[in-house]
User: Fold this.
Amino acid sequence: MEHSHFFGYGSLVNRKTHSFTPVHASRITGWRRVWQRAATRPAAFLSVIRDSDAQIDGVIAPVPNDDWVALDTREFSYDRVAVTDAVTHTAQAVRDISIYAIPPETAATPDREHPILLSYIDAVLQGYLQEFGEDGATRFVHTTEGWASPVRNDRADPVYSRAQRLTLAERSFVDDMLVTTRARVFD
Assistant:
């Protein structure tokens, strides 16, 4: 039986943030990852924009019983866009694949009042480290735009609802990446 799948490119890569299975490493062509915010969210999150020259790693997983309600609720502020032919994967029984993107007309650049949350970065990079290793997590950093945006250090009291506890090695990777990208971290 074939199923509808989602393509995850941010926190959905981290298996600890959801219960969708099985998860398959994949790659999408024609989309670029970017830090953005939407008017309906207090913080900035990852989104994607069309770019014919770009490729990004991510995962696909089936949506049980094609019931998108829970995932659409989790991904509020985003539009669900069909991308089946743009995704390379090894999964079986895939009928179609969708990706979530903040609509261009509602997307804005993160600012100090709507920063990127470090707890969100931690969850995302932990997922990339676990799925794609250090090379894949580094590739994530290099294929994501907007690192110059303000980053709120909320590790001590996470605002992100799916925050994860990082190992010392994972935390060191994230902290080194923030220095390398010249992210503007504030408390």
Summary: The first strand starts at residue 3 and ends at 8. The chain has one domain: 3-186.
